[in-house]
Amino acid sequence: MSSNAFSATLDLRPRPSLRGMQLIVGLHVLAASLAMIAQPPDHMGLLLSGLLLISWFSLRRHPVIGFGKKALIRLTWHADSPKWSLETAAGEASDATLLPSTLVTRHLLVLNFKLADGRRRSRALVGDELDPELLRRLRARLKSGEALAKPGA
Fold this sequence. Notes:
Elements lengths: L9 E3 L5 H21 L3 H20 L10 E6 L5 E6 L4 E6 L4 E2 L4 E7 L4 E6 L6 H13 L9
Antiparallel strand pairs: 1-2, 2-3, 3-4, 4-6, 5-6, 6-7
Helix pairs in contact: 1-2
């Protein structure tokens, strides 16, 4: 078999995830509801409220589900090397390698990248951002391990 399904470049342009945003908002509402039901002491209630606000603003600042200027809106895996090209919504482009800490499950992909300048970026995919066939191909490649950075690289 001379043609390998992994021999082509994989160009992903994920949309913002409505399902991901619903999940995050739901978790924040659940946490706030539990804090109100439990009626913690005043100082604990303030602490929980502060943590919820920090969490919410952190998600807006580091958009792993595709919202905001820093969101990764284009991910390209080059078939001839383990390198990836990333592009943010603000138009910032950079080369990256996929880290072994990447999570691949049936309902969730968390792609962890190390950029050429040493910074790290992540993008979560919960299934509604890409065409199902592209998502299937991405999962297959990730499970094969071909897209991951080699240790020491």
